[in-house]
Amino acid sequence: MPGIGRHTWRIAVLAALGALLLPGCRRGAAVSRSGSATLINASYDPTRERYQAVNSAFAADWARSHPGARITINQSHGGSGKQARSVIDGLRADVVTLGLAYDIDAIAKRGLIAPDWQQRLPYNSSPYTSTIVFVVRKGNPRHIKDWDDLARPGVSVITPSPRTSGGARWNYLAAWGFELERSGDPARAEALVRAIYKNVEVLDAGARGSTTTFVERQIGDVLIAWENEALMATTRLDRSLELVAPSASILAEPPVAVVDQVVDQRGTRAIAEGYLAFLYSAAGQELVARSFFRPRDPVVAARHAASFAPIVLFTIDQRFGGWRKAHAEHFADGASFDRISGE
Amino acid sequence: MSAIASPALRPRRLRRSALPGLGLSMGITLTYLSLLVLIPLSTIVLKTSTLTWARFWQVVGSPRALASYRVSLTTSLAAAAINVGFGLTTAWVLVRYRFPGRKLLDALIDLPFALPTAVSGIALTALYGPRGWLGRPLRALGIEIAYTQLGITLVLTFVTLPFVVRTVQPILEELDGSMEEAAATLGASRWITFRRVILPNLTPALLTGFALSFARALGEYGSVVFISGNRPSTTSSPLLIMAKLEQFQYAEATAIALAMLVVSFTLLLAINRLQAWSRRRLSHG
Fold it and tell me: Which residue of chain B has the CA closest to A12?
C-alpha cells in the first residue's frame, strides 16, 4: 500500500466508526406509570396563543378524570406546510393541528396517519373555523367593501403568495369562490382573481410577512387576511386598522389529526385522542372563540355571535370539490395561479 | 507506525509525513465531511433520481426555473462584484491608514455574519422600502430598490460583505513595502505601482473573496424573501425550491437544487482555475 500504511488505515476506519456509533442511545417510555406524559402538538403560526390556553385547560381537565396524571403539551409552530414536512421528516408530533387539509393529506400519503383521518372526528376533523376578510387603514379611505373593490385599478393589495404559503391558498380560493357564488362563471372568476393579483404590490412568502408589510411598512390599501388574525390585529394590537367583511367568503377549516404512527409507538394514543376531543368540548370551544376562531358548537357560537360578522360562507368541498381538486386546478404547475401571474 | 517497513514498501508518491496522527486526523476528516457534506449532497442526487429523465428536464428547464436561475445568478454575481470593489477599498483603508475608530470599523465588518439573515432582510426592507428613510427619496428619483432585483442584490451585498475584506486584509498587511518603494524609485507613478505591483499580489485573494461571496449569495434565502416581494421577476432559485417543497414536491425541489449545484460548481471551478493561473503568473512574473 503506497503512501498510507495499513495500520494508519485501520485507525482511520476505527475513528470513523466510533464517530458514527456515538449517538446510539434510546429514549425511554413516553407515558409514566402514573399516566403522566409529554406530548407534542405540531401546529401552524397563528394558533400560538390559543393552544397555550387550551393546553393548560386540557391538562387540568385530564387530571380530573385521571388522578395523578400530569400532561404537558409542547407546541411546535411554523408555516403549515413546513410543519407537515417536519412531521414527514420525523418530528415526533403526537397530534397535528394545521392550516389546511392538504398538508395533513401529505402526511397521510406517507403512511404516518390513516387515510380516512378526516372522517374520524366531527365536522371534517376541524373543530373550529375561520374565514378570509380584509384589513384596511382607519376610516377605510379607499372604500373597500367587497372583493370587486380589490380589483379596482390603483388599489394596492397585500397578500402572501399561494405558492409558498398554505394559508394564502384560502385567500386565493375565497376570491375565486366569491365570483362562482355570484355568477357561477369560472371565466369571470379567473378574470376577477387576475385583476386582484395584478394589484398585489408585495407578494410575501408567508402570512406573517404580509402582516409586517402592511402594518409595519405601511404598504398597501388592503390586506387579505384570516378573520382570526384580522380580529386580533384590529381589536388588540393596532387601533389604526379596521376590519372589513366581504359579502361572501370561504369557510376556512383548519383540520386536526392524531399522528397514528407516533402515538402507537409512544403509547400516547388515549391522551392524544382525548386532547383533540377536548377541542370539541364546551370548554375547548369557548377557548377557541376567545382566540377569534369561529366555534363549531352551536351554543358557544350563539354566545359569541356578536364577535363575528355575518358573511355568506361556502366550503371548499361545495365550490371546489375538495382540496385535492382545488390544488390541481389552481396551484399545481401550469394551473390557474400560474396563468394569472403570467408565467 | 510502520517503523519496520521494508524499503520496498516505501511510499513512492506520497511521502510519509514527519507529523504523527495522519490516520486519526484523516479518519475524522473523512467522517466529518461525509456526515456534513457528502451524504447530504448525495441524498439530493438520490431524491432527484426518482424522477424520470423527461420529467427532470421538464422541471429544471421550465420557464419558471430558468427565470429563477437568471435572478439568482445575476444578483449573486453583481453582489460579489460590488463586494470586490468596495471590499478592496475597505481593506485598504483598514490596513493602510491609522485613524480614530479604526478598531471599531474593523469589528463592524463581521456584523453581517453575526446577524440572523432574516433580521438583515427586514432591516434593509424597512430602510429601502417605498416608505423607508432611504427608499422614499430614492423612489422620488425614480429608483425602486425594495421588491426589485436591485433589492435582492442589495441584501446579498450586505450578507456577503465580510468575505472580500477578510480575505484581502491579511495579504495587504503582509505585502512587502519594499516592493512599492522599489517601484517608486524606478519611476513608477502611484497608479502604476498600484496596478502593476500591488494589485497582482492581491488578485488571488480577491478571487477567493469573490468566489466565497458568490457561493454564499447563491444559496441565500432568509434575507431575500423579505426584500424580493416574490413576484415572478424576483423569484430566486432558493425561493422556487421552497415553493416546490410547500407543494410536497420533494423530487422537483431537489432537481432544481441539483441544477443550481451543477451551475455553481462549474462557476466555482472556473474561478479556482483563474486563481491558480493568477497565482502562477504571480510567482513567474
Answer: B27
